[in-house]
Specification:
single chain; 187 residues; alpha+beta; six-stranded antiparallel sheet; 17% strand
Length: 187
């Protein structure tokens, strides 16, 4: 005799996402809005930078958007990259020390220098990427296409999200519904 387990049903999967979108005049205003929304309790996973004029294929809840980064995020990433590169150099030096019983002092110094160089290189590369991102956002802002979107799971959070975006300097704020193949004005 076999036991048949009935399929478990879960919550309904929506084919659309309610959002509030704001257009920002600068990267600084966008970063201010991200901070304000985070303080209101919005999860960073609810924030995105959608394409300003997505194609029909990109206008879906899961495509056509980037994760927003702030200067604080970028600083933390630089610190992590630099630390990882430095730690790799230190571990290499420790490995050489253990392998040679301490007899390879010159090699240890070289490994430590390589680690420091790798850390500096990681820091420089990360800073350059951050600068490129800032320039891209400023160019989008100049075209009126720097858009921040926040997913609204609770209708009571719509008004505070709209207010936070306006207070941060958004030039236009509006509710939208993103659904497969289309973006339409929200309620």
């Amino acid at each position: 005799m076999s036991d048949v387990t009935p399929a478990k049903t879960g919550p309904a999967i929506s084919d659309s996402v309610d959002e509030v979108q704001g257009i920002f005049p600068s990267d600084a205003a966008l970063q201010d809005a991200i901070g304000r929304l985070t303080l209101l309790g919005f999860d960073r996973a609810d924030l995105s930078l959608p394409a300003a004029s997505p194609t029909a294929a990109e206008a879906t809840p899961e495509q056509g958007a980037e994760d927003p980064h702030t200067d604080i995020d970028d600083t933390q990433m630089r610190t992590m990259h630099t630390s990882m590169a430095g730690a790799a150099g230190a571990m290499a030096a420790a490995g050489i020390t253990i392998a040679t019983g301490g007899a390879a002092a010159v090699a240890i110094g070289a490994a430590a220098a390589i680690g420091a160089g790798a850390a500096a290189l990681a820091h420089t590369a990360s800073r350059a990427a951050d600068q490129d991102q800032h320039e891209d956002r400023e160019a989008a802002a100049a075209r009126g296409e720097l858009v921040l979107s926040v997913r609204i799971a609770d209708p009571a959070k719509r008004q505070p999200a709209e207010a936070a975006m306006r207070e941060a300097g958004a030039t236009r704020v509006e509710p939208v519904v993103r659904a497969a193949g289309a973006i339409r004005p929200g309620a």
